[in-house]
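Changelog entry: the Lyase record was regenerated in this release. Current contents:
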Amino acid sequence: MTSAWSRRTFLATSAVLTAAGGGALMLAAPGAASAAPEDDPYAALRTTWSALILGEGFSPTAEPFRSRLADLGAKASQWLEAMAPAEGSLWPDAVFADPDPDTDAESYVFSGRMADSFIRLNTMAQAYRQQGTGLTGNTALRDAVLTGLEHLNTQVYNDGQTRYGNWYSWQIGAPQALLDVCVLMYDAIAPARLARYCAAVDHFVPDSAVASYTGTSTGANRVDLCRVLALRGVVGGTAAKIALARDALSPVFPLVTKGDGLYADGSFIQHTTVPYTGSYGSVMLGGLGLLFALLKGTTWEVTDPKRQVVFDAVENAWAPFLYNGLVMDSVAGRAISRGEADDHRRGHPILASIVLLGRGASAAENARWRALVKGWAQRDYYSPPLSNPSLGLTALARIKSVLDDTALTPIPEPAGHRLFPDMARATHRRPGWSASLSMADRRITYYETGNGENLRGWHTGNGMLYWWGDTFANGQYSDAFWPTVDPYRLPGTTVSRKVLADGAGGDWGNALPDVNWVGGVTDTKRAAVGQYVKGLSSTLMAKKSWFFLDDTVVCLGAGIHGRDGTTVETTVDNRNLGPTGNAPFTVDGSAKPVAAPWSATLSGASWAHLAGHGGYVFPGGASVKALRENRTGRWRDINRAGSTDPVSRKYLTLWFDHGTDPSAATYAYQLLPGASEQRTAERAADSGWLRVLANTDDQQGVAVPSLGLTAVNFWFGGSVGPLVADAPCSVMVTELADGTATVCVSDPMRMRTSLTLTWNRAVASVVSKPATVTSATTGASLRLVFGDLSGTRGATHTVRVRLA
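Regenerated structure tokens:
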């Protein structure tokens, strides 16, 4: 083994070479002078990229880096010892030769193993280049990496090969890892070999891959392809490739109104119908940060002014779905089924990407983002980022630099509501807790499955209501929730118990409910949200409303109908209590058994409380079923690449049993996250706090006098309390202490060319109104006429008035 090199030597050493066998070149001895021309832009780019993917600014002898580097070395040693080049494989457990090459599921496995072989070589190359791995500068490791590159090029990844299986493996997975290795080992690879590797990349990722912004060349995929093209230009010394990569980023920047990309309301869509802020969106954010940093200060710097859209999206699109370091599962698509990466582990790379992106933003943006990241990272008590074993060294270093910055004051979680009509999602933040709602409509899929992943996510778009506390229950969906939860009893959903096959509805988000009325209205503090539900592969129909208020979410359901010959249920909540959890459960002051299994029908229940979580109030009393059970599952059950090891978790479930084939069934309850038993009981006893104005198939509405609030979802026009609408809409009126009121209106169906709303309340004058209001009449009542709302994409329109 050679002696360890300094980081400066590793990043600066270039073309001081000595000949080696087989056409390879060996790195010169540590400390040799660099012969790279100072004006070589490609050498400078290689140095920059090495720093970006290896990390910088950390001590290899300090924790957590010392342990992480040792782990990297151990993994590389494992791959080194197991490598056995053979026909059709580089490792015995990663055979990539496909006996029947096509694009079926089996071929996906073979192409994935090909890409994974390059990823293993990348791990080995990083262990060779990094200090403190135990393999730093190890010649045997170096030679193995070079042998592996050559074997893969000869066997499978070359300009004469026809791709099979998953396009992603050939165009993104394999070439990204290959080019990273080429940068890290550049001085040890003979020019002829580099030329062949570049030719292979050109074959699988030609310039035409970014010729049009369609298909698999949009959003996060486009950024990934641009990364391949840019690094291909860096490795091959081809200016045109780098310029193409830079220019091909531009279609990613503008806001879109359909398909993949960022929307004005903060939505991010990938695969046409899937909300993906927390997975593909994370990849896009990270990729853009890397490319902006790589090209900054060079001839190829990204200067498109529309890149500001991405900077604005940090707080408009990503921040609303980050909470105490986690990124909400409601925008993670099929990634929720990957056992190695829970919501916290998916969130941490986004924090690191925001730090990196800040280098290319304004000083003010950079400072604010770092303060946001510091807050998220510090509050992640459940899974601290610096302890995340899946977080790369570079991301680790960026987050640690923020945590160590004493000049930064962490920004606390904000209070407020965000509605994302373009992806049928909502987030609600209050002091002490946060919630997220996922829905589906004619544009947004029930769920996404594909590549054998997320096989039982069928009902996640049926109104799943996630919630977390500020200092409690942050592991609710992280701790083996997805393989152990009953997939027919996801919190907040109304579903038919009709048995569904794994992957029901088809791959890649193709299954869409034939409904338009999904969305709502918000004043940025509170909200009224509704979903017309039609079940996946079932006859289920329901109207569901959520009123997001100061300390509660009021949940109404009506018109619940099914003809599948099965039970229909609405799950009030399904709390993951962990492997040993026995949180006390109380109903109307009576403690229930803590041992599992236990079940009961709670007839006439007024309220219930789960210690350490929160409370539930049932206005007027209700018959609710409760179950405390231990559930066992395997990640393999929901992801064909998952572990077969059984995992068990305890659950406390509350649900409404609407019976078999119900007609016009209803429900009503309040969710009070973090509420004590006493506060829950007090809310239930205060019969005047909440008035349910309507809960029918035509309208659902509530009034909370103490908040001056009236909110109604009009599934059809009609009259509810003081509000009259002549067409479907969502309305929320709030009377304020200063003698004014806000009237918020939206058209969730995005179809109205006109809408008339009357509020039967004396109004003196209109203080302000949007252009969509074509007429406003005040006096004994307020009459508002809205013009064409069809182009406003379900957005909220707010009128402010002075009360008489």
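The chain is about 30% helix and 25% strand.
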